[in-house]
């Protein structure tokens, strides 16, 4: 009877003990909340990716680490999970958050060794520890709290959720948090590409990221890596053959500091608040363009060309596929300056927009402009444009004038279509945000690039030409377009501009037959060179792509006679060759409403079966309603020479006459009325020291041109070749022009001092 009562007490005590244990095991953990961090979604580092997902740059989080990606369970390779469990918690799928068997084993080993030789911390406990981020001494109380929280975690979360959070949150050293960051930071590859040996190496690090830093202690981490591989074999997770291969695999580390690809483009996006910013950049193309810039600038070093920038736009979308702002972001000579954004003078790269506006107003590619000296009176003095080669080209078609980039012709064309206001408004509408001054500030020199613009903005203006008049904003971020495309220009006129800019023959007088602008496929292209060789440009396009290049020096010192065709154009050429090789390029189908006709380029008139035989001709493209008049017998002399107005007389006799015996002066025009056209009576000139020669030089002209003798009692008449001019001084001056017959006209001007 006593034995039975003893059994009952023992049984009761056992039940109480079991109930208490069950309460502790199953109930007490619910009294402790999980660390708040486990209830807060993990935030990855702000990242910038190329359009195809290649990392360009990963910034630090607010905690000062890098979190490449927050992964789902199915995105984590099974081999990495196995390596991690072999290293940290081989009974992970069997215990309830706290491994009692491991605790017993650890207690036995530590007691027998009289020191701590092993631990029993599970993945659940380590995850709680990481999430709690406790500092200070790890007391028994702290460990008990973590154990209870680990039990609650095991009852509340699935095993898959626990291992996923652990691998996303654990530190792998070197500011790398999470296994995705570790794979990228140590091997510069995605997790899915890791080998078993690489997985084992990563699994070895979290126990002591400082002691097992692969970049400092690869030999120290090697034994632990091999032990992990051995455990994986013991647990049946590796075959013997897989183990042997993993043990012999040489480890090749590749340090990743967060990436620094396309630095100038990323810096332009840095204010973006997004966690992950997918850019429009093509990483491979970006790297190749940076290489091209470096190689080409090396060849120009002796001519003091130290920097260049390039932009590639995909015309269909407005996406910037590549943007390089300097030779080297880390260069000490201004490498961090973004040449694609800092404004520079574009030179002649503005001219196509002047001619496009003229075409829209009824001019044609065959229209004739007199490339002869001219001066314009402005509020600040006189303005006298000069051609780059300091030559005069006489009668030239708009095709020749634009193709050969003639300054005098461009200024005259702009003047004929309404002046600076007309061009300025169009450029502003196209997004050239640096043009903030009134038209009077720029004057007619706007068409030859006297106003600084940004490379990327000018590139997008050219992309509008490439789309045959359709404007859309440029973008560095791959996102749906919010601004609808807008037609800015007439399709047919844009096609004619593309025809001119792709015509190698049209630019032959200035650039020759075999310049860098001649590619093995059709491309529309225009160069630009600013005053004193401080900037040069090359911008061109096909239907698919627009490429813009600037070359120069960030300290604004001049290059040694390097023009757009010798500085920026070789870079531009190499970039377009690369685009053609990677993606292929095409050319335009001719839009409706155009017609082809032969013209005489000396007069711009159309040649018909009824026209006299012309000694030279070429085919030209016209909008049907803008066909030029037909040539007639009155346009030629008996030798077939084209008859020019008297204003060309001096040019015909000069060394600049590249047409030779193909032209002659129309003597019958000598009887027509004439007048003094410059200066007009009552002209007021204010001398300005900021103008060339202080604005003192005043050209003397008649319309139409006459061979006259100029007279002035207060100013000496001077000659520049066959051109008459005066050097102005303050006062009122009367000038007189006399024909050989004695007929004369007079005018007067008033000159104010500086």
UniProtKB/TrEMBL annotation:
One of its GO terms (cellular component) is outer membrane-bounded periplasmic space. InterPro entries: Beta-lactam/transpept-like, Glyco_trans_51, Glycosyltr_51/Transpeptidase, Lysozyme-like_dom_sf, PBP_transglycosylase, PCN-bd_Tpept. Keywords: Carboxypeptidase, Glycosyltransferase, Hydrolase, Membrane, Multifunctional enzyme, Protease, Transferase, Transmembrane, Transmembrane helix. Residues 309-574 form the Penicillin-binding protein transpeptidase domain. The chain crosses the membrane at residues 12-32. Pathway: Cell wall biogenesis; peptidoglycan biosynthesis. Its EC number is 2.4.99.28. GO terms for biological process: peptidoglycan biosynthetic process; proteolysis. It catalyses: [GlcNAc-(1->4)-Mur2Ac(oyl-L-Ala-gamma-D-Glu-L-Lys-D-Ala-D-Ala)](n)-di-trans,octa-cis-undecaprenyl diphosphate + beta-D-GlcNAc-(1->4)-Mur2Ac(oyl-L-Ala-gamma-D-Glu-L-Lys-D-Ala-D-Ala)-di-trans,octa-cis-undecaprenyl diphosphate = [GlcNAc-(1->4)-Mur2Ac(oyl-L-Ala-gamma-D-Glu-L-Lys-D-Ala-D-Ala)](n+1)-di-trans,octa-cis-undecaprenyl diphosphate + di-trans,octa-cis-undecaprenyl diphosphate + H(+). It is an enzyme of class 2 (transferase). One of its GO terms (molecular function) is peptidoglycan glycosyltransferase activity. Residues 65-232 form the Glycosyl transferase family domain. It holds the Pfam family Transgly. In the C-terminal section; belongs to the transpeptidase family. In the N-terminal section; belongs to the glycosyltransferase 51 family. This is peptidoglycan glycosyltransferase. It comes from Prosthecobacter fusiformis.
């Amino acid at each position: 009877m006593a034995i039975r009562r003893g059994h009952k007490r023992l049984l009761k005590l056992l039940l109480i003990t079991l109930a208490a244990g069950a309460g502790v095991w199953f109930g007490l953990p619910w009294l402790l909340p999980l660390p708040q961090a486990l209830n807060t979604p993990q935030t990855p580092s702000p990242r910038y990716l190329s359009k195809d997902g290649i990392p360009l740059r990963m910034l630090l989080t607010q905690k000062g680490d890098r979190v490449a990606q927050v992964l789902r369970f199915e995105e984590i390779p099974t081999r990495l999970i196995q390596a991690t469990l072999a290293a940290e918690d081989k009974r992970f799928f069997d215990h309830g958050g706290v491994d009692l068997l491991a605790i017993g084993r650890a207690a036995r080993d530590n007691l027998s060794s009289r020191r701590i030789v092993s631990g029993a911390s599970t993945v659940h406990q380590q995850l709680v520890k990481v999430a709690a981020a406790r500092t200070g001494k790890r007391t028994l109380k702290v460990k008990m709290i973590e154990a209870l929280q680990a039990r609650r975690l095991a009852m509340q979360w699935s095993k898959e959720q626990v291992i996923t959070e652990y691998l996303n949150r654990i530190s792998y050293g070197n500011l790398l948090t999470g296994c995705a960051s570790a794979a990228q930071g140590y091997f510069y590859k995605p997790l899915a590409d890791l080998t078993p040996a690489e997985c084992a190496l990563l699994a070895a690090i979290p126990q002591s990221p400082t002691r097992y830093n692969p970049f400092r202690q690869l030999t120290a981490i090697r034994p632990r890596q091999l032990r992990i591989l051995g455990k994986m074999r013991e647990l049946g997770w590796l075959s013997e053959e897989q183990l042997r291969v993993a043990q012999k695999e040489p480890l090749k580390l590749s340090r990743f500091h967060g990436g620094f690809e396309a630095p100038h483009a990323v810096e332009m996006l840095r204010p973006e608040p997004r966690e992950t910013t997918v850019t429009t950049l093509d990483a491979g193309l970006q790297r190749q363009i940076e290489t091209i810039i470096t190689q080409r600038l090396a060849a120009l070093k002796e001519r003091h060309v130290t920097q260049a920038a390039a932009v590639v736009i995909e015309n269909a979308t407005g996406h910037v596929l590549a943007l390089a702002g300097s030779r080297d972001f880390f260069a000490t000579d201004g490498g961090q300056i973004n040449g694609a954004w800092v404004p520079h003078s574009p030179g002649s790269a503005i001219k196509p927009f002047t001619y496009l506006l003229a075409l829209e107003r009824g001019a044609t590619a065959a229209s004739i402009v007199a490339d002869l000296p001219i001066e314009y009176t402005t509020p600040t003095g006189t303005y006298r444009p000069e051609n780059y080669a300091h030559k005069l080209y006489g009668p030239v078609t708009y095709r020749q004038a634009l193709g050969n980039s003639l300054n005098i012709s461009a200024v005259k064309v702009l003047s004929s279509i309404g002046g600076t206001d007309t061009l300025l408004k169009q450029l502003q509408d196209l997004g050239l945000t640096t043009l903030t001054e009134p038209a009077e500030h720029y004057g007619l020199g706007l068409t030859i690039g006297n106003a600084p613009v940004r490379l990327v903005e000018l590139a997008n203006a050219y992309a509008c030409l490439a789309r045959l008049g359709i404007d859309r904003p440029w973008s560095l971020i791959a996102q749906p377009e919010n601004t609808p495309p807008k037609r800015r220009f007439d399709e047919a006129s844009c096609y004619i501009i593309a025809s001119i800019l792709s015509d190698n023959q049209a630019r032959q007088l200035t650039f020759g037959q075999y310049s860098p602008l001649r590619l093995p496929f059709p491309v529309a292209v225009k160069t630009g060179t600013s005053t004193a060789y401080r900037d040069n440009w090359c911008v061109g396009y096909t239907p698919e792509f627009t490429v813009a290049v600037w070359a120069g020096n960030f300290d604004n010192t001049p290059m040694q006679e390097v023009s757009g065709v010798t500085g920026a154009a070789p870079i531009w050429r190499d970039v377009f060759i690369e685009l053609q090789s990677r993606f292929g390029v095409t050319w335009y189908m001719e839009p409706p409403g155009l017609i082809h006709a032969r013209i005489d380029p000396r007069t711009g008139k159309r040649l018909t079966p009824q026209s006299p035989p012309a000694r030279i001709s070429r085919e030209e493209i016209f909008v049907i309603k803008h066909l030029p008049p037909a040539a007639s017998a009155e346009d030629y002399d008996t030798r077939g020479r084209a008859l020019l107005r008297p204003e060309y007389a001096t040019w015909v006799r000069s060394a600049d006459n590249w047409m030779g015996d193909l032209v002659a002066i129309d003597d019958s025009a000598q009887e027509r009325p004439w007048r003094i056209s410059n200066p007009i009576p009552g002209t007021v000139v204010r001398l300005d020291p900021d103008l060339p020669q202080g604005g003192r030089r005043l050209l003397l002209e008649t319309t139409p041109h006459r061979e006259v003798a100029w007279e002035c009692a207060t100013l000496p008449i001077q000659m520049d070749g066959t051109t008459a001019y005066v050097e102005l001084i303050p006062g009122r001056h009367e000038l007189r022009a006399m024909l050989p017959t004695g007929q004369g006209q007079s005018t007067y001007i008033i000159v104010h001092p500086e």
